[in-house]
Amino acid sequence: MTALLTTDPRTGAQTDTGISATTPEEVAAIAGRAAEAFAALRAHPRAWRAGLLRALADGLEADRDELVAAALAETGLAEARLNGELSRSAFQFRLFADAVDEGGYLEAIIDHAGDTPLGPGPDVRRMLVPIGPIAVFGSSNFPFAFSVVGGDTASALAAGNPVVIKAHSSHLLTSQRSFAALTRAAASYGAPGGTFGMVFGQKAGAVLVADAQIAAVGFTGSLHTGRILQRIIDERPSPIPFYGELASLNPLVITAGAADARTLAIGEGLFASVSGSAGQLCTKPGLAFVPNGDAGDALVADIVSRAEGAAAQTLLNARIRTSFDEIRARLIAHGGARSLVEPAAGEAGYALTPAVLEIAARDVTAEVTEEAFGPLVVLVRYDTVDDVRQALDAVPDSLTATIHAEPHEDGVRAALTAAVVDRVGRIVYNGYPTGVRVSWGMHHGGPWPATNTQHTSVGVTAIRRFLRPLAWQDAPESLLPAELRDGPCDAPRRVDGVLQLAQH
Amino acid sequence: MTALLTTDPRTGAQTDTGISATTPEEVAAIAGRAAEAFAALRAHPRAWRAGLLRALADGLEADRDELVAAALAETGLAEARLNGELSRSAFQFRLFADAVDEGGYLEAIIDHAGDTPLGPGPDVRRMLVPIGPIAVFGSSNFPFAFSVVGGDTASALAAGNPVVIKAHSSHLLTSQRSFAALTRAAASYGAPGGTFGMVFGQKAGAVLVADAQIAAVGFTGSLHTGRILQRIIDERPSPIPFYGELASLNPLVITAGAADARTLAIGEGLFASVSGSAGQLCTKPGLAFVPNGDAGDALVADIVSRAEGAAAQTLLNARIRTSFDEIRARLIAHGGARSLVEPAAGEAGYALTPAVLEIAARDVTAEVTEEAFGPLVVLVRYDTVDDVRQALDAVPDSLTATIHAEPHEDGVRAALTAAVVDRVGRIVYNGYPTGVRVSWGMHHGGPWPATNTQHTSVGVTAIRRFLRPLAWQDAPESLLPAELRDGPCDAPRRVDGVLQLAQH
Known about the structure:
homodimer; alpha/beta; Aldehyde Dehydrogenase, Chain A, domain 2; 2 domains; 14 helices; about 40% helix; about 20% strand
């Protein structure tokens, strides 16, 4: 069997990983072990699982140097960024541990038996329960935070499910080492053996999604691959939930007032948001609306000058590098965008400098709204809020929209908010959509094609994806989960319609 | 244009309704008015919407006599049942009004800006918001509670969305009159004109689902029609959520102890659950496991005797009547079931008496697990819990499972619970799955093919289907919804990770 290759995107050099593609038989065995682990995981209370999540965070940090070194060699991302991402992943496990301890995510409800306007009602108790082994597809652009040790893994496990990860082909060794860190920490903690599984190779990923033991799929990647996975799911005898984060252009609008008051600050912030991590973030503002006039011209000039002075940054892999050139060419040839700054290839590997394009708002069509992964922004010049609104009609719905406006521009700010509110999952004011905060309330989702569901993949409520409601009617107390028994409860719940806080 | 016909299932006689099928142009206009109403509805606070829901309940009850009379003529269901269903629909509107007033369904979360282990975090506030006009497909078997004035309409509106209903062809005049009751009450209350819309005809339903203004679809019906609607959604430029309640066999297991201790009580209860509403309930237990031995034999004899003595009941329409015979024949010919009681056709229309089939647990295959809508039960005779477990492997996942066991049968009861827990959305003990309580905690859903999502279509949490999360980052207070502003709040919310009760 041939081993899979990994590539250093800084040089393009390929090396043998020693890892073989997982065979269909191996995938079935891994999914089978996950199903066994599911039964074992259920026997443990919430506090045990919170402890497991914290042990994973500790294990990750203990292996920090080795993990960051592996990712450095495979992703071309900067060391500071990778260290930050590893910290973020550890923080994420700990935040989910807090959420599991807190218990609100269970949405526990007790309706006691009693007379109702419709006659006697039975005792009904409901809460969310885990659903089974979850397939998680690592994404290329976050080798930690959206990959083996990322948010989908953390939220699926927080819910009580085992996880089988499809390693991303762009960082196979990072995946292998991340997996080793997870399994070592889990084993020391006493978790069942099949709590984590991993498969390698595109075909193995497809086999995994089709496996009858798999209960849901978490995916961050392209619309194209997302559609392939959805088709596999549709052909299963029992379709399962598919949570895909797919494509996002993240429009950003700068009002005349903001361009005037904060020209250089916005130039700096926007350029950093567009070019950070070589523009390979799903919340990168791909389209920035800049007003016509002197302040807007100055802002454009500032961004152009920053782009022209920028060093080359390395893209993650050959496919992204090739797509970048192809999409940029299409935005110009078919979209009618004008090139303000031409990207220049770096000396080796997949490196290049940022690209800046410009177009008038009235010329914005679907052809100029293709997402270009990499350091590219299309500056859209406009006169009125109506121009922005009309241009947005050609922009696919997104994860985020951002509005830069001054306090005295109340009316414009409200009108712009109304123009984006139905199109996105998060509205950012006077900031930047990149650098997604991992917190209780973060929402990282949005209408199609941003995602294909009404859920988030970042923040505590991401756990909801991997749970389903279950109701017990007139159940003997011994068969109820602890959180649904009468008496004090360590989780919040709704009893006979009244929300009650946890009691400790 | 030819008018649509309605049929009295008691006689088979058809009459002209005077209603024409809605044209594609009319569907587009109705969806357009719904989109306008969506914008208007958003301007109103929760208390206003709660008032609207209560006004609808009052309007429904004011028109009770006329509505029940219309349904009597079109459905063949009994008057008491229809009166109860209308009361249930009114109760449902009022319960959802209470939930809207209470505000917990918003899942409001505030994370204030501040230092985090990952550096300074922005202010992030998140809650659920309505998604837009909802298409609701009325079901044949509940002309009120799962039709024009039913749970999908109530939950979509409670969430803040306008509703466009596809009238079920089996009760066109009931739908028309229900719609008149809704729109009259809504208009008196001052709701915008497009809050409710209705379309008639199968083609109009398909056009509605494809309309770009429609944001989600609620459906209760057959797997076959569900698949057709899903295909239309998949072909939209922007796919939308589809909430389908599709098929359910609802296995019921009687232990040896229960069969012995409560032979006649279970015979009476099970027969009522199987034959009530002529067996046309989605939670009807289609498969009942009865132990081998004297007590089980006595229980079977009791059910047989009840079935043999039962009067004919009228099925809803010609399709259900024809399917009933076809499916029953397949259960015998291909499934290997033995007929204990042959159904007899009634004197006129679509009436028939109940059918009872029997099979040994070890002979249960997929061929004997087809859902037969109507008064039919397959009695499965078994020796051990293992027999039950193995037979369940051939049973598609369901909305419910029911376990009848005695207090001294702890072990068996726990083993049976473990055998069904991953297969259903609700487990009923020593009761019957029909007569679904409308309450805060009810869950009426289940793994595929019971439904295609992780949501319920009965109970307060049904509202979640028609909402999506939205996050505001560093937003000016004036642009935040009332529930996300600092200071006292009349809805519960989580602030910096801590759940807080509403303050009044």
